Every structure is written in structure tokens, then in C-alpha cells.
């Protein structure tokens, strides 16, 4: 950590992010239109979120290419039991990365539950520093961190599209096991290395038919997720065996094929 600055006004907390995301659609407009104006849709769909066989919620997502950027958006609504009361947790995601090398450009999420609002964001101050902004009900802080070498990915609870994005960016690259840098946004933010392993492809029953699915495994102890993707790199299924968590793409009559931009050469450093 480099520094922590308390921001007492909401606009100050979000000023840098407002500039960074000015080119992307607002959350509501993005959900209504299904794509950022002037962009090309790569993929969109819905993930069904279940735990030990019980459906908890849904996450709608869309991935677009706009100019030299890729825009990743999602809306997640999941039911949780909080303090003995069943409540809906709604999360919105808007993340922009480089189309060519998947480098993170900015990140913004919004969570609403029980009448409270939490905003999290990441802004790149330079090539060597990034800042995490966190705000709850209008009060927040910004904390600067040194940028780790290589590509940086972001994870946040109840936003499974972020895991799909990791898989999409890696599925066409040849590797057995490779390290990646993860920034995890939570009550206590962390930056750490994780690993993605490529396991043998296998048949998967999805959408009423059998498909040959590539199998990736995300490992960041004690967290281990298994992901199955089709030949175009679409995430079909993700599971966490220890808890019985299951995230499955809802089968649709017509779904646009994702067209992954040409992948950059794998860096020698973690990323």
C-alpha cells in the first residue's frame, strides 16, 4: 500500500472514475440497449446461480468491443439470508479493458442491499500505480497500490462474469498451468497471484445436448473453481465443489458467438 486518503464527499471519491468510464454506457442504459452505442457485441447471456441445487439468482452479462476497448457489463440479483432475513443483493458491473492485450483500464461496481449502497472502483493513476475507491452510503476512501507486473484481473463476490472474462482471455492461449495477478475487492482488498490450469477436454451435457467442453481450473488457495467452455470460449458451467455452488449459462434459442480479439503474446511475467 502506498497511501490512504479519506474522501468526505461523494463526487471527490468518484471523480477519477467518472473520467475513466465516460466512454461507457451507464448501468441502466447498458441493460436496456444490450450494447454500448457504436460497439460490436461479442457475447451476452444469463448465468443461473444455484447452491446445492437451490436457485439463488441470476446474472445477466454482455461483452462488447468499442474502438480499442472491450467493455464487460453485468447485473446480478441474488437472494441471501442476512441477519435472519431473506434479502436481495443487487450488483452492477462496468469494466473496461484493452481489446488487444486485456490490460485493465477501469472498473466500477455498485451493490445495493437493505437500503444501503456500496460502490467499488479501480482507476489506473499511471503504469505503476492503481487506486481502489470504496464508498458506502456516500462516504468513502481511496487507496493507492503499486501495479504488479503483467496483466491484472479483478475478482469481486457475486460477479461471476469476472471469472468468465478471465477464462475468455486465456482459453485460446497454449499453456498447462500459468500464473495470473488477481486484485480481489472485499472488506479487505488484496493483490495476489493465482494459477489457471488447463485440464483435458470432456463431454458436457448443456442445453439439452452433449458438447465437447474445454476445462480450466482456477486456483487461489483455498479457492478452487472449475470452468467448462465451448469451442468459441463461451463459459457454459462453473462449479465450486466444496460448497456446491454452480453457475450455469442459461441455454437460449439464439446466442451470438463470442469473437475473441487476437490474443496478445503471453508475457514472461505473471499476468
From TrEMBL:
InterPro entries named among the record's database cross-references: TonB_box_CS
Region listing for Disordered, in residue ranges: 247-271
Keyword Disulfide bond set for record: no
UniProt entry tagged with the keyword Signal: yes
Alphabetic keyword roster: Signal
Record's signal peptide: 1-30
Biased composition (Low complexity): 252-271
Protein name per UniProt: DUF3108 domain-containing protein
Lineage: Bacteria, Candidatus Eiseniibacteriota
Amino acid at each position: 500500500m502506498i497511501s490512504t486518503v479519506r474522501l468526505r464527499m461523494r463526487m471527490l471519491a468518484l471523480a477519477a472514475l467518472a473520467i475513466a468510464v465516460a466512454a461507457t454506457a451507464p448501468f441502466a442504459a447498458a441493460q436496456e440497449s444490450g450494447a454500448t452505442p457504436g460497439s460490436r457485441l461479442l457475447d451476452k447471456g444469463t448465468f443461473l446461480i444455484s447452491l446445492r441445487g437451490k436457485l439463488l439468482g441470476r446474472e445477466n452479462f454482455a461483452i462488447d468491443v468499442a474502438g480499442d476497448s472491450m467493455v464487460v457489463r453485468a447485473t446480478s440479483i441474488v437472494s441471501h439470508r442476512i441477519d435472519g432475513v431473506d434479502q436481495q443483493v443487487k450488483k452492477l458491473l462496468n469494466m473496461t479493458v484493452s481489446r488487444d492485450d486485456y490490460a485493465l483500464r477501469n472498473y466500477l461496481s455498485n451493490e445495493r442491499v437493505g437500503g444501503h449502497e456500496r460502490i467499488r472502483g479501480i482507476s489506473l493513476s499511471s503504469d505503476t500505480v492503481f487506486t481502489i475507491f470504496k464508498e458506502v452510503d456516500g462516504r468513502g476512501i481511496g487507496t493507492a497500490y503499486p501495479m504488479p507486473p503483467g496483466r491484472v484481473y479483478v475478482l469481486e463476490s457475486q460477479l461471476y462474469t469476472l471469472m468468465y472474462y478471465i477464462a475468455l482471455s486465456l482459453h485460446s492461449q497454449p499453456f498447462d498451468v500459468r500464473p495470473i495477478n488477481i486484485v480481489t475487492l472485499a472488506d479487505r482488498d488484496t493483490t495476489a497471484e493465482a494459477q489457471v490450469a488447463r485440464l483435458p477436454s470432456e463431454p458436457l451435457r448443456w442445453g439439452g445436448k452433449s458438447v465437447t467442453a474445454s476445462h480450466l481450473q482456477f486456483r487461489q488457495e483455498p479457492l478452487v473453481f472449475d470452468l467448462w467452455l465451448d469451442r468459441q470460449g463461451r463459459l457454459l458451467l462453473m462449479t465450486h465443489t466444496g460448497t456446491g455452488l454452480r453457475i450455469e449459462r442459461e441455454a437460449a434459442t439464439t446466442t451470438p458467438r463470442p469473437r475473441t480479439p487476437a490474443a496478445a503474446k503471453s508475457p514472461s511475467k505473471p499476468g
